Amino acid sequence: MLKLYTTPNCSSCKKVKSFFEKYHIEYSEKNFFSTPLTREDVYKMLSYSENGFNDIISTRSKIIKENNIDIDKMKTSELIDFIIKNPSVLKRPIIISDMEMQIGYNDEDITLFVPDSVRDEVCDECASDIDCNFDEAISIIKKQL
Fold first, then answer.
1. Distance between CA atoms of 17 and 93, rounded to whole angstroms?
2. Which pTM value belongs to this model?
3. Which residue among 49, 54, 71, 110 is least crowded, i.e. fewest CB within 10 A of its CB?
4. Active site residue 126
5. CA of 94: how far to CAs of 29, 70, 106, 117, in Å?
């Protein structure tokens, strides 16, 4: 099942949840303003990142700018503690599957989370006389958004 890390007033978070609900994609949500992040949460995010903390932290966040924080000078344990105490520094939403992580909402990338069963339904409804390929199915899904 997908794990979705969100905040209450995030428009991108709302788009992801709406997309998942429309396509009956199961997910568990963790609002990291109301439910504190754990070290395990942060380690899981980092395990899927290509660029470590740079992938998940918004260096434009108010806390980082106002306090002149240089995340590159912090030790890993310090940075994890900082994130747990200041979750607003995280980019959002963060979506984690068994295979990958996506940060933010992107019309192209979000379709990666559409399960095969939904793709099959879309292909069954395809107007072409031949079986839909993946690109055709995604094209149909995007038109429905």
1. 10
2. 0.80
3. 54
4. no
5. 10, 22, 12, 24
